[in-house]
Amino acid sequence: MQSRAGVVCWFVFSLAAAGQRAERLLEDEAALAAPGEVGEASGRHSLVFRGVAGEAAFNLHSYLAHFDGRFWAAWSSARVGEVDPDQHVVYATSEDGHRWSAPRTLAADLDGPTGPRRWIARGLYVDGGKLHALAALVESADYGQRGNGVVWKNLRLMKFTWTGAGWKEDGVFADDCMDNFPPGKVAGRWTMPCRDSRMDLNVPRQEGGGWKGTAIHAEPPFHRMDEPALYAAADGTLQMIIRDGTRSGRLLRAVSADGGQSWSRPVVTNYPDATSKNFVPRLSDGRYVLINNPDPKRRDPLAMSFSRISEFGMEGLAGGKQKGGALPPDRVRPAGWKVRAVTAWACRRSQTCRA
């Protein structure tokens, strides 16, 4: 794909202490006033899997990792639709990120195509020299019950470990937790935002043999917070960038100044969003990258904006968009690489997964 020169935007990570409202996330609002006109970044699309109507037509919730010299992709797959009773988790591998193996089963349907139990892919990560996968096991997906009752009945986040020959189920990783990305360590403790069975947002931290969660303020207009991305900012605070399910067309943000033990009330930022998944990795050169769909009217394009905090304040950096970025992004940062760009991949709701 040919590139078009253009600056996406700068975004602001400086951050106010917990409890203060920091509404400005995008430094120059004009930069994303017309998302479709943002300069296009160069890149290459490679087919991971093309769905098969009536067999594996739904493919979403995509994740990517690098382990043992290979790229690993995992995603939810179902015969027809999202979170149907037959939904399960599959994976594929690639040595170069472009030529992929045929998908294989990571977490199989446990009770047949009409039984209540179904899987939702929730992440891939490397820890202790081993590759792990997370998948949520639920017995319902009653989204109409949100705000009134249980959406995901008997929600459990299950852990799997690659043995070299296949995936081994390691039992419950966290009870009543629908994570959005794999956990990260904060002060030596696993930490990850979760939504519980009622879709209420909290941030559990691993303590001893269990988890201790901190609820996030969820009174209107913050009563439909979804799919948060958690990262450690350069000033020592923890930041959550949150999808706003009330469709404000803007990202939300909450801040913790004590390692996740307490959180500020969320605020609506000035950063536009299509009400879709977002992610905020940090590159090896110190830059932060915010990946999202910045058109409030549709999930296209998939765009990146960059930021760096130094002793001299903010530095604006060039970024770009990808066509057809209508989908939740993920990223990979293989150990030892000098990361200069973001590797993103996603599955379309209809059929196709691309890297």
Question: What features would you describe in this structure?
Answer:
The protein is mainly beta. It has a single domain, classed as Neuraminidase. The chain is built from no helices and 25 strands. The strands form seven sheets. It has a four-stranded antiparallel β-sheet, with no helix packed on it. It has a four-stranded antiparallel β-sheet with strand order 6-7-8-9, with no helix packed on it. A hairpin with a 5-residue loop joins strand 13 and strand 14. The radius of gyration is 19 Å and the shape is globular. 44% of the residues are buried. The N terminus is likely disordered.
The mean pLDDT is 83
Largest sheet: 4 strands, antiparallel
Number of β-strand runs:
25
The ordered H/E elements are EEEEEEEEEEEEEEEEEEEEEEEEE
Structural class: mainly beta
Q: What's the structural domain tally?
A: 1
Quaternary organisation of the protein chains: single chain
Task: Give the CATH level 1 class.
Answer: Mainly Beta
Rg, Å, rounded: 19 Å
* CATH-defined architecture: 6 Propeller
What portion of residues belong to β-strands? 35-45%
Give the strand line-up of the largest sheet. 2-3-4-5
Q: Count of DSSP helices?
A: 0
The shape is: globular
- Write down the CATH topology: Neuraminidase
